[in-house]
TrEMBL record, chains A, B:
Pfam families linked to this entry: Esterase
GO aspect biological process, one term: formaldehyde catabolic process
UniProt protein name: S-formylglutathione hydrolase
Job of this protein: Serine hydrolase involved in the detoxification of formaldehyde.
Active site: S150 (charge relay system), D226 (charge relay system), H259 (charge relay system)
A Gene Ontology cellular-component term: cytosol
Signal peptide coordinates: none
Domain of life: Bacteria
Length: 282, 282
């Protein structure tokens, strides 16, 4: 798998880079961002934190706005940020151009319905294909963690819950906890996965947590002034599901904070330390 | 002067806000961003760091990308980011829509030539009008510092050099040090100020430094991999002018860093501390 460098910017002694490659899984070119801390120049392979962004984002939002590089440089953690959907020629979009479905809104599932199933396979991309690319091309170990925001928080939770042993730690900012029971999820799952709600359960954190074979502690931050809190995000559903399953969850409700990257930036260092401890960097 | 709140996002315990007001100086509405650290809720008035952005930017780039809020929240320093030019109905732009002149490129001068002179008065806006608005509407003191990037670094340097006693400290990232002697400056000064190069001298840091009545130490960071270094920025001209004048200058050349916000973010904390010391917050 050959990867093509798009840009490189020195950042906190390391490098922020973007690469393009042909994704077999997505049937399209795709771009990812990677932060390589200064320790990447040394011999010891570094662990990787995968960051999954939310609706409308691409690989750049987190790298521009979260302010994660400073602490990542201190901790020696690589950060990888994929795009949020397939893109490019032949990739279908929401017929009405909505921002909550289609391009920029892959929901980290493998679509089973047409016309989506040919390209919208962000789950396989994020869990398998991209880590293989990263581990083949950069000085990294197989120690992985995963986090994300909103739709990407949902993605981080389901990737971890469905893949015991694959991640050392997981966290989320304002995740869509229960897509089976919110408008964004209904639209996305209905289109990508079809009308059989039984099939949706394997992509819903609140459903998956009941039978999760691994009990990685979940760290979740949620702003209390988030406009999407009550209708779309539903942290109380995750809280109830975790309690019922006996799954460890630290849910931090942050007064006054909204859904923006200002919220993420304010607490990203706590998440980086959470992951660094699990990755043996703290 | 009434100001209208556009948005408010909680950030590191404080607030990132945007406001719009009718600028008499610019003859247009204008928008500024302000970061109010948590200490703004207390009784003691806080000092203000003014940040001047570069070509193509507006009031948001710095607040989104520099990662300054975390340390500003610790130090108790307010940050204010104005736009980079007048905008709106009736404000003329470069006739060819170029990015290095007109909208987004006010160069922090008071234009004397038509059709620019009616609106392009960013110098008066930044030095006088905006601080008056800030000091009338927020819990701030009259202790001010100024910094900026590229065109905004030029702006910060000339605002400080031309106004003894007005700022406690000044710094710049990759400033246009000698606009009289670079293509960006030739275009902007030629249009805004006319063809008399004598008149340009009062807007050029390398000229102003010779007779500056106040010797505020200049802190300047410059990336060595900056694409604009040799042709547009010319830190060696500032270095020579400061040496000739006996003006204190710390010019830090940063290997590998470019002209982007990744560069700014990597060193913004050093600048914040430089200003906080002068502002009595360290």
């Amino acid at each position: 798998m050959s990867i093509e460098l798009i840009s490189a910017n020195k950042s906190f002694g390391g490098w922020n880079k973007r690469y393009r490659y042909r994704s077999a899984v997505l049937g399209s070119d795709t771009v990812f961002g990677i932060y390589l801390p200064p320790q990447a120049d040394q011999s010891e392979p570094l662990p990787v934190l995968y960051w999954l962004s939310g609706l409308t984002c691409n690989d750049e939002n987190f790298m521009h706005k979260a302010g994660a590089q400073k602490l990542a440089a201190e901790l020696g953690v690589v950060i990888v940020a994929p795009d949020t959907s397939p893109r490019g020629e032949g990739v279908p979009d929401d017929p009405e151009g909505a921002w909550d479905f289609g391009l920029g809104a892959g929901f980290y599932v493998n679509a089973t319905e047409q016309p989506w199933a040919g390209h919208y396979r962000m789950y396989d991309h994020v869990v398998s294909e991209l880590p293989a690319v990263i581990e083949a091309n950069f000085p990294v170990s197989d120690q992985r963690s995963i986090s994300g925001h909103s739709m990407g928080g949902h993605g981080a939770l389901i990737c971890a819950l469905k893949n015991p042993g694959r991640y050392q730690s997981v966290s989320a900012f304002a995740p869509i906890t229960n897509p089976m029971d919110c408008p964004w999820g209904h639209k996305a799952f209905g289109n990508y996965l079809g009308s059989d709600r039984e099939a949706w359960k394997q992509w819903d954190a609140c459903e998956l947590i009941a039978d999760a074979p691994e009990r990685l502690p979940l760290l979740v931050d949620q702003g209390e002034a988030d406009n999407f809190l009550a209708e779309q995000l539903k942290p109380e559903a995750l809280e109830a599901a975790a309690a019922a399953a006996g799954h460890p969850l630290t849910l931090r409700c942050q007064p006054g904070y909204d859904h923006s990257y200002y919220f993420i930036a304010s607490f990203i260092d706590d998440h980086l330390r959470h992951h660094a401890r699990a990755l043996g960097r703290l």
